[in-house]
Amino acid sequence: MIWFTEYQTENVGLTIKATQVKTIKSKYQEIVVLDTPEFGKVLVLDGAIQTTERDEFMYHEMLVHPALLKHPEPKRVLVIGGGDGGSVREALKHPSVEEVHLCEIDEEVIFVAEKYFPTISNKLRDPKTKIFIEDGSQFLEEKKDFYDVIILDSSDPVGPAEILFKEEFYKKVKGSLRENGIMVAQTESPFLQKDYFEKAVKEIKKVFKNVGVYTGFVPTYPAGMWSYTLASDNINVLEPLNAERFSSLKDLKYLTKDIYENLFSLTPQFVREMT
Amino acid sequence: MIWFTEYQTENVGLTIKATQVKTIKSKYQEIVVLDTPEFGKVLVLDGAIQTTERDEFMYHEMLVHPALLKHPEPKRVLVIGGGDGGSVREALKHPSVEEVHLCEIDEEVIFVAEKYFPTISNKLRDPKTKIFIEDGSQFLEEKKDFYDVIILDSSDPVGPAEILFKEEFYKKVKGSLRENGIMVAQTESPFLQKDYFEKAVKEIKKVFKNVGVYTGFVPTYPAGMWSYTLASDNINVLEPLNAERFSSLKDLKYLTKDIYENLFSLTPQFVREMT
User: What backbone torsions phi and psi does residue A72 show, to the nearest 5 degrees?
Assistant: First the structure.
């Protein structure tokens, strides 16, 4: 056993008892798989925890379902990043969804997810899932006016994901959405990554008419406090739309109908003031 | 500079860059004051972070205000534990409050709070505040049918605070409440201290008719996810009572009227299933 420490900022870290199972240097990043008594298997990219078996449901449910519920009838969904497969798994819980495209730049992440994280990656080979190993930004240029929902399930805005937090990129996302299209992005910790958070929300607001920020618990992410940003031109994402469809979603362990209907009521005052 | 690590369980810790400012061995516990670039001054009791200048508002606002708002007219408030003074400070924001009693077993905690945490302890010498250096359980026996709101602002249920998480103790709390009295307790992390959490809620439910559990972010507490339990015999604490009084509360940085009115809507599904 070792103690693995993620330094979430220069001044604070989360330290976890672990056995190092696998280390891969891919073309883009260092991929580490840990086995831990507290969180089960843990996926680490360039030193930052991406997903753990024990708390991934909190992140994936909160990232995926609000955007899909707010859309009147989501059929085509794109996940950018998210090579672990958790967002794909959640998107496929919506009965109207006909296809989920996953655009992941690093195919090694997918190989690792399929080998070590079967409960997260188990829908990557679903007949409705199609995987594209491509740069997200280039991929969007080939898919104009195509998706109902686009989910930005990226790593932190350093390294390969840096480009995914800029106005230029959000414009491409908008270009790839159909009428009534909705985007959702993970937008970092409003407490420990205040600058990234504020910047991302500001850039998204430059591009989309309706923007809403909400927060949720993710124990293994910085401060345990995570943010998500919904955006759309035609849909007022601030409304609790189509809540009656909530009952069609199976096996949720975090999101409740109550949380969905009060999504923006949960935001602490200091986070409101930042957006 | 050192790295101070709190092991939140055997298998996970929070590690913080710090200068150790002061260490005191009191009759009850080891009291450490750290100065940290990320969280400002940090108070540590027996190795566990109790309060930090940067995130204490999240804990104290969520612990104190819901209970006081739900009471029709809180005049007499008791804080058990809470020697840092944060709960006293928040309770005194309610215009109806005439006196706040603080019952803290360890007077060294109060000395340390007054010396090193002036923004937290600044109402400990308020004319409405009275400090009792006593065992909380014994203190309650002297104060039957006396308080409108009792706030259990204790440390973890090990060491001096262990007794504060038992049915026997909650019965004494009930005996010290007046008609329409309300109790609120910090009840640990539902994620990393699942057993403590479930036990505390179960014991409280044995004693009070109306019980409600809610959650909130506290980045420096285990999992960043904290729970609070409201309880009363006469008041239905599950209702968003007296929300119009919210506007009389000054300088809130976490709690909003929206959060107050939807307090129990915020609870994730896996926490609901535990209560």
Answer: -60, -35
Which positions 64-123 of A are in contact with B (Cβ < 8 Å)?
A: none
Place of tokens 């909530």: A246
**Count of residues in chain A:** 275
Q: Is B126 in a helix, a strand, or coil? A: coil
**Which of A5, A37, A269 lies at the smallest CB-CB distance from B256?**
A269
Domain harbouring A248, CATH code: 3.40.50.150
Task: Judge if B143 and B254 occupy the same domain.
Answer: yes
Beta-carbon count within 10 A of B138 CB: 11
pTM of this prediction exceeds 0.95: yes
Q: Would you call B266 an interface residue with chain A, using a CB distance cutoff of 8 Å? A: yes
The residues with which A110 forms a beta bridge, in sequence order, are none
Q: Report pLDDT digits (tens) over B13-49.
A: 999 999 999 999 999 999 999 999 999 999 999 999 9
User: What are the structure tokens assigned to B110, written together?
Assistant: 């109060």
Q: Are strands A177-186 and A225-232 parallel, antiparallel or unpaired?
A: antiparallel
Residue B49 Cα, gap to closest chain A Cα (Å): 14
**B20 shares its domain with B152:** no
Is B153 assigned a catalytic role? yes
Query: Based on the domain organization, do B45 and B63 belong to the same domain?
Result: no
Per residue in B95-133, pLDDT (tens digit) is 999 999 999 999 999 999 999 999 999 999 999 999 999
Closest alpha carbon to B79 in B114, B113, B124, B19: B124
CATH of residue B7's domain is 2.30.140.10
Check whether residue A17 and residue A120 sit in a common domain.
Answer: no
DSSP state of A134: S
Rg (CA), chain A: 17
Q: Are A4 and A16 in contact (CB under 8 A)?
A: yes
Give the residue from A219, A136, A181 showing the smallest Cα distance to B14. Answer: A219
Same domain as B202, residue B134: yes
Q: Which domain holds residue A185?
A: 56-272
CB distance A53 to A40 below 8 Å: yes
Annotated catalytic residue within A153, A156, A233, A251: A153
Are residues B130 and B40 part of one domain? no
Structural domains counted in chain B: 2
Angle at A222 between CA B66 and CA A93, to 5 degrees: 80
SS3 category, A24: strand
Residues B19, B67: Cα–Cα separation, whole Å: 36
Q: What is the ipTM for the molecules in this complex?
A: 0.95
3-state helix, strand, coil in chain A (%, to 5): 35, 35, 35
Would strands A147-153 and A177-186 be described as parallel, antiparallel, or unpaired?
parallel
- C-alpha–C-alpha distance, residues B149 and B183, integer Å: 6
| Same domain assignment for residues B115 and B47 | no
CA distance A225 to A213: 13
Query: Are residue A88 and residue A181 in the same domain, yes or no?
Result: yes
